Amino acid sequence: MSTFNGLPAHVLFVHVIVVLVPLTAGLLILCAVWPAARARLIWPAVVLSVVVTALMPITVDAGEWFQHRLGDPPVVDEHARLGHQMVYFVAPLLITAALLVFLHLRQGRGRPLGRTVVAVIAVLVLAAGGAAAWQTYRVGDSGAHAVWNGVIDH
């Protein structure tokens, strides 16, 4: 999909990503460090991690279409480079969500994992969530600079 109602689809998808990636990261971190939150929020967090992972290639494809439509301005190259890297930041969200589901199901069956394993999972979730949120900021910031510094004419 290249446009939606006359707007570049990338612009619309990006706003979804900018909201959902940090939200997903935050929910996963909450689930990792607070067992009561995990009991209530694990499934919405897993659904969000699947959604952001599925939306990432769609957003990148729409961005490539938009970039070519603009004539490949050099300042957009940095944004595109960072955007292509996002898959390496959302995939760990999905992986750590799966680890949290494993932890949740084990505890629900009365077979909790050891503290060390739980701590390692929590550290992995914190690292994946923090990295995904930071990369989302970097990609968004480079795109905003491209727009607001006059590269994209309206």
TrEMBL record:
Residues 6-150 form the DUF2231 domain. The keyword Coiled coil does not apply. Coiled coil: none annotated. The chain crosses the membrane at residues 12-34, 41-60, 86-105, 117-137. Keywords: Membrane, Transmembrane, Transmembrane helix. The keyword Transmembrane applies. It holds the Pfam family DUF2231. This is DUF2231 domain-containing protein. It comes from Nocardia yunnanensis.
